[in-house]
């Protein structure tokens, strides 16, 4: 995978191409903060922006997209339907709200943010309708465990293209990753950098020294080599830039194994089964 660069994409199961690296904007304040982060990211070469209605910054994301010189068709935009917006009619309404705030005719990827019991199948039917109508280029899920996916796939007309989950060396989700591979669902990592909790880990520090990289860069490179799309979030220009500097080296198999062995099934976000 050393031939990858910041514009490299993975082809999803419906033929749509999605960048391997994107900018997450969770907790970025609407207005100047999120706009500046996106501006810096686009200048650094990012072409994927991940937001959600729950982040309350879709309007700022939309402004940034209108103000950039990067053509719209080059930018991959993801947003998500929140838990209290789920259900069939509710999702259609939530989508229109997101689309208006973003100022986009078509959204590239629309995700079910969490598997709300008793609702996510109706939510999915609404998303299939949006997909059929060409209002979204791809639909997927977030925070779905295997049993959620199995239940959804039983009668879904459209298979999810992506499952965006918490994924990092302390939570490698191997069974889920394997299930997604078998079913041609692309795994995507949120909180890939363990919210900084792992940066002092001796194993990671040693690898960073060995490759002349930061701990964050080592983890992001590990993601790529695990064939997991990754969307590190930051509003700091230096970090946004630093997170792109992962395409000029490759972790050896032995070093990949070291990071794999860090798994503790440790979550820093909620558990989908109890949230």
TrEMBL record:
Similarity field: Belongs to the aldo/keto reductase family.
Outline the extent of the NADP-dependent oxidoreductase domain: 25-264
The keyword Oxidoreductase appears for this protein: yes
Write down what this protein is called. Answer: Aldo/keto reductase
PROSITE patterns, per the entry: ALDOKETO_REDUCTASE_1 (PS00798), ALDOKETO_REDUCTASE_2 (PS00062), ALDOKETO_REDUCTASE_3 (PS00063)
Coiled-coil boundaries: none
InterPro entries per the record?
Answer: AKR (IPR020471), AKR5G (IPR044500), Aldo/ket_reductase_CS (IPR018170), NAD(P)_OxRdtase_dom_sf (IPR036812), NADP_OxRdtase_dom (IPR023210)
Tell me the keywords, alphabetical order.
NADP, Oxidoreductase
